[in-house]
User: What shape does this take?
Amino acid sequence: MMRLLAVATLALCAAMPAHAAEGKRIEIKGELIDTWCYFSGVMGGPESVVGTAHHTCAMWCAAGGIPVGLLAEDGEVYMVLKLAGDDESNGGDTFLTMNNDTIVAEGMHYARDGINYLVVSEVIANEGIPNHTHEDFGVTPGNTIPDSVVDKVLEDG
Amino acid sequence: MMLRKIIAITCLLAVPAHAEEGAFSEGSKAKSWNLTGQEKALFSAKVVDVLCELTGDCPAQCGAGKRQLGLIRVADDALVFPAKNGQPLFTGAATDLLPYCGKTVDVDGLLTGGDEIRAGSAKLFQIQRIREAGGEWTKANKWTKDWAKKNPDAKGKGPWFRRDPRITKEIEKDGYLGLGLAADKAFIKDWY
Assistant: This one.
């Protein structure tokens, strides 16, 4: 029996990754953001690639499988690996549709090699998109809204 | 209105781009994208499911395309987080990495971000080329072909993100700003 237990334990350990990290349960508030544009500067400064200004681009990126992050109130960014129990972080619907929402989330925080990760088990509150960055930056990138859409609105008055 | 546009453009140009050599730059043939904190990086690494690596929740085949994948760098055992593939089309890296789940590969690309964006933060990785040890290099540009296979009814002119049915549905519902169609109209009248 003991031998069986030992074998089962060994098999379980072999199935686990070598570096499973120590997680910490947290409650955190922040905006779900497009991490590539935020960190790479490819579209400009960080303040211009959050909120309403960057909402459509953030959806493009989320649908394209770019990691979604949570930008906390203290400026720390957490890579979200699971959102409201959904682990489809590579372009899944939950990650796509909640972009730029400011949420209060409960979940596990992991830190490894200079990057924060968040596994959200529950979204406690969702404020929608209160970060109206379009008032200062327009839309980023500037061609987000097609000319045909702009022209129609201006023509219609 | 003009002043707001000038301020917006100034802010967009405010982030410096630096083509730096880093600890893993030797031998890299990565092309510059003029990114913040950019450094070329060529290294060997094992492809892993990041959620599995951190939590022990490990489905078959690294999540079979659902999850973000990471790179455990052979040289220092660091978990490097890839955010982007080699296509300039809003496309991530996981789809290009998936065929190599659990394997050790060589990757070539750019590290970006880090301290220049957030003090103490590690840089994210953009993969431009990948190969199995001893194999031929292949470009990390498979995402759009994969999308086209999954969206046969979304054929048409223009890039994928203008035709993606999930995105167009969201824009039809909540507009380009995410605040509703009336907010879009008011913004367009004010800004353009």
Observations:
- The radius of gyration of chain B is 20 Å.
- Chain B has seven helices and seven strands.
- The first strand of chain B starts at residue 39 and ends at 49.
